[in-house]
Every structure is written in structure tokens, then in C-alpha cells.
Amino acid sequence: MMQEHTSFLLVVLPLIFAPITAVLPRGRLPWLATLIVTLTCAVLAGMQLLAVIDGGVISYELGGWAPPWGIEYRIDALNAFMALIVAVIAVITLPYALLSVEKEIPEHQTPLFYSAFLLCLTGLLGITQTGDIFNLFVFLEISSLSSYALISTGRKRQAQTSAYQYLVMGTIGATFFLIGVGLIYSVTGTLNMMDLAARLPEVADQRTTHTGFAFIMIGFALKLAMFPLHLWLPNAYTYAPSVITVFLAATATKVAVYVMLRVLFTVFPADFVSATPTDELFILSGLAGILITSVYAAYQTNVKRLLAYSSVAQIGYMVLGIGLASTLSVTASIVHLFNHALMKGALFMAVGAIIYRIGGCHIDEIRGLGRHMPWTFGAIVIGGLSLIGVPGTAGFISKWYLVVAALEQQMWLVVAVILAGSLIAVVYVGKVLEALYFKSPADDMPAVKEAPLLLLVPTWALVLANVYFGLDTDFSVGMAGRAVEALGVSAK
Amino acid sequence: MDFIIGHYNYWVAIILMMAGFYTIISRGNLVKKIVGLNIFQVSVFLLYISLGTVHGGVAPIIAEGVERYSNPLPHVLILTAIVVGVATTALGLALVVRIKESYGTIEEDEIHDRDHSL
């Protein structure tokens, strides 16, 4: 019975527990409840992945209404993989959250904080599960609204302005998506993704379809911080509480990439997409994003903001993979999505540990800190190497696949930009490492202790995952391959 | 002429959409931005409701002697979107209150000055 309802439980469990958590007494109880719910979700997501790993598809009809009239949850290898990433990252984030949240969030707000966290999880998992495009909009707004609230709980007052900025831009993005869905509905009369895929070829040459497609693309480009629509991201990531930065950086933009893949490859017919300049625009945006935001990252003096700009650059790699639109490049995109969740998760956690100890992460504040916090420093070293793409780390694998995919289409410029992006990553990662280890600490700096174990263990879990998935790619590349099969990317 | 009059609710939607969008971009006052956002969203609601109309159709309530009904689905969708819009507005205004408390102003350029004059 459980097996059958897995996909629904994944969404409904955190949704039910969100209001319950909000009314729990202060203290550690809300955290414990959240931990249990996310653990359950991760187990369910794992079970779900096992059920569809051989190319099967689970179709769950909400309330027993048959699709396309009712809402359908349609799970294939890609959805299940995404849900697992989101749930597992949430599980790894939570042990870290306990101390970090106690330090950064006023105690009376913690129940509400965890409640919003669960709502955000509901939204993100919902996006991965649903097979109905309007339902997707609703989950998108659930996750967005809760993340605006979560970001605004940051300690500095800039957290509020950046949450506001994100709210305005995020709502514009979501509303654009809504317009697009409306226009598509007006020509097809359906909202179910599979049904849309079946009906769209008939109306592919209508102008309404094109307009709807453009609105959906722009809307989600805003959500996934695709260059040049990334302006909300650096501020939001910089001023959000450490835990939220970790969680959002590792999941929210990734889920938006998933929606992009789904819309481009499953919902809209391949010849429709290739008749529009979508691929070219994606490649252009990816290339510009990699180069420009990497350079921006190199000029930042706040480590969190530096990593946030680097996130936009890394999104550029995924966008590039989507734009090249071959089986191999989309595989590279999905692998990079997975690996980037690991590396940025690890790096933001390590920076969060520094903030936990010294209360800031400006490049001048952290001088010489590597000697006092060797384990945190070690995590930043390995995470940084993975970000650069050094062989033996996860970051190498995805960039390798992307380079091979570009070579396959003989796009030399793309190859050059990917490599240049890695070189600039050397600069900005080097800048952080230099400050941490090679610069002498300020004279008046008090002795700093290593971060507590509860922060280090989750950080190192992700760091070791970076190394593991850099050496053994069976799971990451294998899953991405199956996901691409499920997407039905036509070979180019 | 027929084209203009026949589609007048779409024209209204487009005008509202642009007015709202322009307000978001051009105004520095955070509350005015939220108002613009609201107008922008409402225009999309109008667009959806217009899409549901069927020529000669009546309100989708079963009645004797009526064979044409308007499509109720877009209306239902918009109910959901209205709820989302209300939540967004509430959250946005709540953030404005917090910003006013910590900055003492809700003008974008003054906030910018206060963050950078430190």
C-alpha cells in the first residue's frame, strides 16, 4: 500500500507537518520533527527511485480522477532522481541546522523557521513529482514564498531587502510562467504534461503556442537565475541564514533546471523547439554566464557572495548543456546538476561554519583562519578543487562530459569557454584559500576554535561525496543516462 | 475595428499588464512596487477568465434548456492563482514593514544610500 502512494506521501508529509511544527513549543522539538519528516521523505524518495530505475513509470491519480482531467503525479527516472537529490540534501542540511539556526535565528522564531523550511521542501518535492503544469505553478509558488520568508530571517538587515528583491523578481517569473501556461491551455485545452506533449504537435505553428512557449521559458529562466536574469541570486544567497543558503543553493535552482528540461524535451515537440532560436539563446546565455559571472566572483570580497556568483556561473554550465541539446550534453547537464548540489552544499556549509565561529565571512575577517579551523579549511580546499574541476573530484566528471559533448558537435569556442571558466574558478577559489591559509591573521584576532562536530560531520559527508562521485560515476552518470532516456532527448 | 472591439478584454489585460510591469520597474517606493506587482498579476487573472469564455455560453451551472456553457476550468485555476497572489502581497507588505523598521524608509534609493554610507 505504501509503495503505491509513495509519490503522494513525499509531498503530503512535509505539508501536513509544516503547520504542526509551527505550533510546537520552542527548543529542539521543531528541529526533531523536521528531521524525522525529511528522513522519511528521503527513504520514500529512495524507494521511489528503486521502483522506476529500470525505466518504469509510476502514474498516481490524485483523488482517483483519471488524467488528463485529474492531477497526475507521473514519476520516471528523472523525477525520482530529482526528488532524491532534494530529500537527501534536506536530510544532510538538518543536523547542520540545529546549531547554526540556534546561533542565527532568534529562539522564538525557530518553530516558524522549521515550518517554512518544510513548506519549501513540500514545494520543491511537489515540483519534481507532479505531471500537471498548473499544479507545478502552485508548488513553485509554495517553495518560492517560503524561501522569501526564510531568506528574510537572515541577521543583517540587507536580508530583508534582498528577500524583497527576490520576491518581486520571483513573482514576475512565476507570473510569466502562468501567462505561458494559460496561452498553451488556450490552444490545447489540457494541462497534463503528457497530454500536452501529445496535442502540441497539431498546434505547433500557431503564434499563441510560440508566445506561450516564450513566456514559460523567460519565467523559468528567472527562477533558475539564468544569466542575465540572475540579479536576485547573489544578494539572496549572501544574506540568507547559512542553512538556507546551503539548502537553496543545492536544491532550488536545480529543481528549476529540472522544469526547464521537462518543458523543453518532454512537453514541447523536438522539431518545435529546434525551429525556435532556443538552443542558440541557451548556449549564448550559458557562455556569457560562465565568463562574466566567474569574473564577478573573482572580484568579490565576501566569501558567500563570491560563491553565489560562482553558482550563477555553474548554472551557466547546466544551461549550456541544455542548449547543446544532444543526449550526451543533457546527460552532462544532469550530472553537473547533481555534482554542483554536492560541491556548493559542501562549500556553503564550510563557510557557514566560519560564520558560526567568527560571525562574518569577509575576506579580511577570515585571514589565517585555516590554521585554527583545519577541518573547515580542508572542506573548503576539496570543495574548491571540485568547483574548479580537478580530476578525482565530482566537478571534473561533469565538466569532462560537457567538454566531450561540445567536441562531439565541434564547438571549439564552447570548449574554450568551459576551460576558461575553470581557470577563473582557480582564481576565485585561490583567493579564498590564500586568505584562509597564507595570510597572517590580524594581530587582535582572538583564538578561534574549530567548528563543532555537528557542523563538521554534514560538511564532510558532502565533501567525501564529492570525492566519491569523482571516482565512481556509476550512480551519478548512470542515473543521468536513465533520466535522459526518460526525457526522450532525440539524438542530434 | 471588429478586431479591436471583439478582443477588448484582452486589450484591457495587456494594458493592465504593462501598467503594472512599468510600475514595478520605475517606482522606487517599495509599496508602490507591490501595487504594481498586484496589477500585473490581476491582468493575468483577467486573461485567464477571458480564455474561459465560450461564444454564446452561459455561466457553467447546469440549467434546463441550455446547451452551451463557458469553460469553468480557467476560473477554478484563477481562484488558486488569486490565493497565491494574496499570499505574495501579504508577504511582500510584511517585508516592507520589516524594512521600514530596520531602515526607517521604504524608498529604494535611500535604502541603497544607507547600506553603502556605513
Structural class of chain B: mainly alpha
| Proportion in helices of chain B | over 70%
The main sheet of chain A comes to: 2 strands, antiparallel
Distance between the termini of chain B: 59 Å
What is the overall pLDDT average of chain B? 87
Please state the average pLDDT score of chain A. Answer: 88
Q: Which bin fits the share of residues in helices of chain A? A: over 70%
| CA-atom Rg of chain B in angstroms | 20 Å
In terms of DSSP E residues, the strand content of chain A is under 5%
Whole-number radius of gyration of chain A? 21 Å
Largest interface: which pair? A-B, 25 and 28 residues
Architecture of chain B, according to CATH?
Orthogonal Bundle
The CATH class of chain B turns out to be: Mainly Alpha
What is the subunit arrangement here?
heterodimer
Could you give the count of β-strands of chain A? 2
How many separate structural domains of chain B? 1
Main-sheet strand order of chain A equals 1-2
Low-confidence stretches of chain A: none
**What is the CATH fold-level name of chain B?**
Helix Hairpins
Strand content of chain B: under 5%
Distance between the termini of chain A: 42 Å
Keywords, please?
heterodimer, A: 492 residues, mainly alpha, two-stranded antiparallel ribbon, 2 strands, 77% helix, B: 118 residues, Helix Hairpins, 5 helices
Provide a descriptive summary of the structure in words.
The complex is a heterodimer of chains A (492) and B (118). Helix content of chain A is 77%, strand content 2%. Chain A has 492 residues and is mainly alpha-helical. Chain A has a domain at 277-492. A two-stranded antiparallel ribbon of chain A has the order 1-2. The radius of gyration of chain A is 21 Å and the shape is globular. By secondary structure, chain B is mainly α. Chain B has five helices and no strands. Chain B is elongated. The N and C termini of chain B lie far apart (59 Å). The mean pLDDT of chain B is 87. Classes of the chains: A mainly alpha (492), B mainly alpha (118). The interface between A and B is medium-sized, with 25 and 28 residues.
